[in-house]
Specification:
- The complex is a heterodimer of chains A (about 180) and B (about 700).
- Chain A has about 180 residues and is an alpha/beta fold.
- Chain A has a single domain, classed as Rossmann fold.
- In chain A, the strands form 2 sheets. Chain A has a 5-stranded parallel sheet, with helices on both faces. In chain A, strands 4-6 form a two-stranded antiparallel sheet.
- With about 700 residues, chain B is of the alpha/beta class.
- In chain B, strands 15-14-25-24-23-16-17 form a 7-stranded mixed sheet, with helices on one face. A 5-stranded mixed sheet of chain B has the order 2-1-5-3-4, with helices on both faces. Chain B has a 5-stranded parallel sheet with strand order 20-19-18-21-22, sandwiched between helices.
- The longest helix of chain B has 18 residues.
- The chains are: A alpha/beta (about 180), B alpha/beta (about 700).
- Chains A and B meet through helix 4 of A and helix 3 of B.
Chain lengths: ~180, ~700
């Protein structure tokens, strides 16, 4: 029997969800023995020409054109797509900029901050462009599983993955949902 | 009255009975059936704004808000089904989508009713896109802030400010998606007429109104480790019922017990002092007993050594020179139990000649006024405020002293048309009072004298009431009055207003006079005496019309338990040694006492290190602050006592104050009669002849 393949990505986020995944302790060994981790920040494969995977896991909100493109690619190549953590589920802390015009956000971040000298706006054809607003994953591509939390606790991650591996679409019970 | 017939209905198939006028929600709650709510707050009026509590009623096409729907005979109510859940969840998603309800950077995450509802309804994502209209954040108050981005417009704060605080500062402004809760329309927390009582913070179900003293204190389920302890606030003598929320020996917040207010007219409010200032750092703590050595240096000492040193000195002086040279001075911010042990130690153990409180001068003024009056001065209770139709506030800034009373006054003015007159340095309640007369504390006695003479002149009842005006014969009194008015520089316009006020006072049915600390601190008691005579003019049902504000939280207890000294006639001996029992007394208070006498030996029992005592005292003994020690306190009207619970552990190995005092009593040669806190509580209750509010 071949092991189910998993791909994970992180977009506009802090990597906390991946850290929380590593925080699974001995359960991590158990889960990793049942799956094959392909593209992931953990494996450090940065090739986003995804193989066909069973489960795609997304940490982070969709903040620029690259995030959008990768999310769309991942959606095409995975059976079950998981929005992982508050940023992927709701947009998260990144949405703090959503009430401010993006030019203003960039200008402040790259030109006006006190620590910046001779700042340059990050606008170039080689660079992904910032979207007007940070979006939750499901506003860009259809999502199958939502695991909110900032980050989702190891218990929530273990519950979600175990359910998926056993062939069910997990729905978090009330006492497991946390937004903080 | 005939008992109303019961209404019968079913909720989720259970047969229940209800009284006429009850809502579906009330009946369900009574029957133990849970219906989620959000804008509803049981201490406030029903609103019906959020639709979270919708239920299905057989025969009605639409779901109804159970918090405002009255029950009817034969109603069949369903509180949970797929349609209802879907409706609630949709409403919840709309609320979440409307503004910034991202919990991970909200200071109140984990202590939020909106968040809990999302969990309960398993809202693991939102099916509608969020709107990102930015709103302002107001942090102009030291203790709380308001973030309109997190507001759900439930109106709890608006109702609480109006219905509980009676202040009407908060109101909805703007329209549609830009609606917000404004302070006096476009003012800030600071620039508005808000008194910062924080009742809005207590009832806010989200992070919109948040504490600035503790943030992110409930994230990740930390609220599960909280202890909520029901207690009372002893700070000003109104003994407001509180719930103290504590975790890890840290006081997180103090809430008023809105629903447990019982017969209290304030309905469970708190003031900024009781809610917020309590959480402030009160100063450097004294953690171990300290003694001053022969070369003048302070060193740490064991409890036994420190207490031995105090007892030896006091015992020797008592046995050689007599107790007349010994003194004790106590804070009035300590419990009845501590006051009793202090008094017994000084009086029985050391036969001390002088025992007094820091507010002793107020007590003596009240005593003297009572003596001049020729009969005991009957004090009115603050609980009489709601029935009062004319209130004169004299010589106090209530917003500093007892802000809660201002809330009662404001509510009276608005709800029952009570008229309020203010005489004093601060025009408190500028938009609520009918009269204001500006005067400094120095002129106050003359003002009250004028007031009394005008009232006596205007009232034929003065003689009937058996109180003779100071000067007999009308022309002479007229001249006296005119001289007084000239003395304080009173203009004709003010005279006219004062006359109008006096006639309104005399025409009122249930007036109340509030005598502030400026009157009782006056060295000559005539001011208080005149106000008492004014009260007596209207004291027809002998319910007492004069309320005397006390300076400290347990002043009434200290006065009634005989700690504050009467001025005894006879020669005074020089005070050689004494014991000072402190709480959070100001440096000025302490200096006022140490400036009068410089004894050769001073022992201090205090929670804090008062640096200005370091060159005065010989022994410093730590004690718990009021949050760290259980005890009963007496209300400022002297009518009841209430339990104040221990909510925090004292730092280090600090012993309870009453235990320290008992340990000293055991060293005086005679054993203390009372050995436990329970015995002390019973003794205090018996001496005060009062029950205890738990």
């Amino acid at each position: 029997m071949t092991k189910p393949k998993i791909a994970t990505v992180w977009f506009e986020a802090c990597s906390g969800c991946h850290m929380s995944f590593l925080d699974l302790d001995e359960t991590l060994v158990d889960i990793l023995s049942k799956v094959q981790l392909t593209v992931s920040p953990i494996t450090d494969f940065k090739d986003y020409d995804f193989p066909e995977v069973d489960v795609g896991i997304v940490e982070g909100g969709i903040g620029n054109t690259e995030h959008k493109e990768i999310a769309e690619k991942l959606r095409k190549h995975c059976r079950i797509l998981v929005a992982w953590g508050d940023c992927a589920v709701f947009g998260g802390i990144n949405t703090l900029r959503n009430g401010i015009p993006k030019e203003e956000v960039l200008r402040y971040g790259f030109i006006e901050t006190e620590s910046t000298i001779n700042g340059v706006m990050p606008i170039h054809k080689e660079l992904p462009a910032l979207l007007d607003k940070v979006l939750p994953l499901h506003e860009v591509v259809p999502v199958d599983v939502y695991l909110p939390g900032c980050p989702p606790s190891p218990e929530v991650i273990a519950y979600g993955l175990t359910e998926i591996l056993e062939g069910r679409i997990p729905v978090l019970p009330a006492d497991m949902i946390h937004f903080d | 009255m005939e008992p109303k017939s019961k209404i019968r209905l079913t909720i989720d198939g259970n047969e229940v009975t209800a009284d006429e006028g009850m809502t579906i929600l009330e009946v369900a709650q009574q029957a133990g059936i849970h219906i989620p709510t959000l804008c509803h707050q049981p201490a406030l009026s029903n609103w019906g704004g959020c639709r979270m509590c919708v239920v299905a009623v057989q025969g009605l096409p639409r779901l109804v808000a159970s918090c405002v729907m009255p029950v009817r005979e034969g109603m069949a109510v369903v509180t949970t089904n797929e349609r209802i859940i879907k409706s609630r969840r949709t409403v919840l998603e709309f609320i979440f989508a409307e503004r910034n309800h991202n919990c991970m950077f909200c200071p109140k995450s984990g202590d939020c009713e909106l968040q809990q509802l999302a969990y309960d309804l398993q809202m693991d994502h939102m099916t509608v896109p969020q709107s990102f209209i930015p709103f302002s954040v107001d942090v102009t108050n030291d203790y709380m802030g308001i973030d309109h981005n997190r507001c759900i417009l439930c109106g709890r704060c608006v109702r609480a400010c109006a219905e509980l605080a009676g202040n009407h500062v908060l109101a909805f402004q703007n329209r549609g998606p830009r609606s917000l809760v404004g302070f006096d329309l476009n003012e800030t927390l600071k620039s508005s007429t808000c008194y910062g009582c924080g009742v809005c913070l207590q009832v806010c179900p989200t992070g919109a109104i948040f504490s600035r003293q503790h943030t992110h204190y409930a994230v990740k389920g930390h609220a599960k480790a909280w202890h909520a302890i029901d207690s009372h606030c002893p700070l000003c003598g109104l003994l407001c019922p509180t719930t103290m929320v504590v975790t890890d020996n840290t006081l997180l917040k103090v809430e008023g017990r809105l629903m447990a207010a019982g017969n209290r007219p304030d309905r469970g409010q708190l003031c900024a002092r009781g809610r917020f200032e309590v959480l402030n750092d009160a100063g450097e703590r004294l953690r171990h007993p300290l003694v001053r050595t022969a070369n003048g240096r302070w060193t740490e000492a064991s409890w036994e050594n420190a207490l031995d040193r105090v007892a030896e000195k006091m015992n020797v002086l008592r046995d050689t020179l007599g107790g007349q040279v010994l003194f004790g001075i106590a804070s009035c911010e300590v419990s009845n139990e501590v006051l009793i042990s202090f008094r017994d130690l000084l009086v029985k153990g050391w036969s001390a000649g002088t025992i007094d409180t820091f507010d002793g001068s107020h007590y003596r003024t009240v005593l003297a006024a009572s003596r001049d009056l020729g009969h005991p001065l009957k004090e009115a209770s603050w609980k009489q405020l709601p029935e009062s139709d004319f209130v004169i506030v004299c010589g106090t800034d209530l917003s500093e002293r007892q802000p809660l009373l201002m809330s009662l006054l404001r509510r009276n003015v608005l709800e029952t048309g009570t008229r309020v007159a203010v005489i004093g340095p601060a025009d408190i309640m500028a938009s609520f009072r009918s009269f204001y007369f500006a005067t400094g504390d120095d002129d106050l006695p003359a003002w009250v004298d004028i007031l009394w003479n005008m009232a006596a002149q205007a009232s034929e009842g003065a003689l009937n009431a058996g109180v003779k005006p100071k000067r007999t014969g009308l022309p002479e009194r007229k001249r006296y009055l005119r001289d007084l008015q000239k003395e304080v520089g009173m203009q004709a316009q003010t005279r006219k207003a004062l006359a109008a006020m006096v006639s309104q006072y005399l025409a009122s049915k249930q007036p109340l006079l509030i005598a502030g600390e400026a009157l009782s601190s006056a060295q000559q008691p005539s001011a208080l005496n005149n106000l008492a005579k004014l009260a007596r003019l209207k004291d027809l049902d002998s319910g007492g019309r004069l309320m005397i504000l006390k300076r400290d939280g347990n002043s009434a207890g200290a006065w009634k338990l005989g700690i504050a000294a009467e001025n005894k006639p006879g020669p005074k001996k020089r005070l050689k040694a004494g014991l000072m029992l402190l709480d959070g007394e100001s440096a000025a208070d302490i200096a006022a006492w140490t400036g009068r006498s410089s004894p050769e030996f001073l022992a201090v029992i205090s929670p804090y290190l008062h640096t200005n005592l370091l060159d005065k005292a010989q022994v410093l003994v730590p004690r718990p602050c009021w949050l760290e020690e259980e005890g009963t306190y007496t209300a400022s009207d002297g009518n009841e006592t209430a339990h104040v619970q221990k909510v925090l552990a004292a730092p280090g190995d600090i012993r309870n104050t009453w235990q320290t005092l008992l340990a000293l009593a055991e060293r005086t040669g005679g054993a203390a009669a009372l050995k436990t806190l329970e015995q002390l509580t019973q003794k205090a209750a018996a001496e005060l002849n009062l029950g205890i509010e738990t």
